[in-house]
Amino acid sequence: MSFTTGLSLRFSIFGSSHGGGIGGSLDGFPAGFRLNTDRMKMWADRRKPGSSVYTSQRKEDDTIRIISGFTEGYTDGSPITVIIENKDSISKHYDYLKDNPRPGHGDITLFYKYGKYRNYQGGGFLSGRMTAPLVAVGSVALDLLKEKFGIDIISWIDNMGGSYFGDEIPENSEQPYKFETRSGNPQSDRLSKDILKEVISRGDSVGAGIRTVVRDMPEGLGEPFFDSVESSLSRILFSIPGLKGVEFGSGFRFQEMRGSSANDLFYVDGDRIKTRTNNNGGILGGISNGMPLDFRVVMKPTSSIHIEQTTVNIEKMEESTLMVTGRHDPCIAIRAVPVIQCSTAIVLLDLMIQSQKIGRVLKN
Asked: What is the band of 53 on the pLDDT scale with cuts at 50, 70, 90?
């Protein structure tokens, strides 16, 4: 098993959805960055359940307990390690699921891999709750990139249930948090709420797309082949539960294009070389070219729905039915937005350390 990712900056997670708690550790973070616990809490709150009628009603305060990584308010070079207690797990909701795996979930694959020893309560360590410590420690990387380098990571929902909301990019990373649906503007927010109200009334769920644009990207990030910008980001992004697709720049639209329209043409702007279009999403040859990093991910509909479905009783090896109880998100993409941002920050900071654009100790 691998619960660790990264090269120069390594992120690890531990715990499970219905255990005593969950946690994360970020090893290799530069020393000398001032900790802002209020902002850590703000980012954790953006991801936590129960924040609106459009998210899971599980009530977790997600209080972050920092056990290492800081001395007298500054990062000290040791791993930034946090623990978050689970306080509102109701394991009895999962008793029936021990032998009757939920369609669309990892229940059946956990059974294939670990048999009777698997952790089936709340999805165990495959649960989306495992992203809470990622956001907690990743938010520190997010703040460092913004404060020291002006790098702004903007993520928002640009598609829900097949309704595309357009190409308008929010002004900054804070704008989508003005809306409960993490949309980019008021009109998209209203459309998203209409979609969500409809699926909630039916006990169903809906998928969505999340677009991310990173402004003020430095040139030269990424290593050839297996540690390219795309490879590094995809590794952590595909670890987010429910995320089923990633595309960079024009992505799968390239199959419809000609080279004459796909190529991003260069021009000189002051002392910088820029491109007139950004079809490649700010990446050429796996290395950043200084244009905004631009990618999209697809989050599938929440698998736990309040509609009767067929499954199989794995103990009796016969077909059965189930209707999932408990508290679940009608659209997991809403709470995934800060997870995408913090995941991106961890990867970009790792690549900056690898490229020696930032040292082990920050300069004042």
From this structure: confident
